[in-house]
Design goal:
The protein is mostly helical and 173 residues long. The protein has helices at 5-26, 31-41, 45-48, 58-71, 75-101, 105-115, 118-122, 130-149, 155-170.
């Protein structure tokens, strides 16, 4: 028997990570992923930035280039950055829910509602920058909440700025 809402939430995170890995390894490539791969990932960087395309999410594209270079061309290799962003997104859902609602069953319900949102769940397994951008935004929000509790730690402002810049770089929306 699970003794606390946080323990149950951690098991849910592990389950959803497994589901996202399975989806990333087995689902067919989507048209958006194919466009990203053809337009951004296989194009050399100097040529890539000769023309603007809103689909080129700079941080996500660079990470996809790195994983394709390391692991070869496959749907799964293309999706590794999204999987990493999806893991961070799930962890941040739990951290923020715990910060806002404490160690309670309300925290668990809020976490589950966020974690099982089908749109957000997709962001953790398809090769797009949305999940990574949302996760980085949530990390910045958490750091801002910490700064409110500890106003003398102004160094956190630099970190928040970097996190927000990375969130924009992960997905230009």
């Amino acid at each position: 028997m699970v003794s606390s809402p946080s323990k149950l939430a951690r098991w849910v995170i592990l389950l959803l990570i497994a589901v996202n890995i399975y989806r990333a390894a087995t689902q067919s490539i989507t048209s958006d992923e194919a466009f990203t791969f053809n337009r951004s990932v296989i194009t050399p960087i100097p040529l890539l930035w000769e023309s603007f395309d809103a689909n080129d999410h700079v941080l996500h594209t660079l990470l996809c280039k790195a994983t394709i270079g390391l692991f070869g061309v496959s749907e799964f290799a293309l999706r590794i950055p999204a999987l990493s962003g999806g893991v961070l997104l799930l962890v941040m859902f739990l951290r923020l829910a715990r910060r806002l609602f404490g160690e309670s069953w309300t925290m668990l319900v809020v976490f589950l509602l966020l974690a099982f949102n089908p749109f957000l769940l997709d962001y953790g397994s398809i090769a797009r920058g949305y999940g990574m951008a949302a996760a980085l935004l949530l990390v910045a929000i958490e750091q801002a909440m910490i700064l409110l509790d500890r106003p003398m730690e102004l160094w956190r402002l630099n970190g928040i700025g970097v996190l927000l810049a990375l969130a924009v770089a992960a997905n230009l929306t």
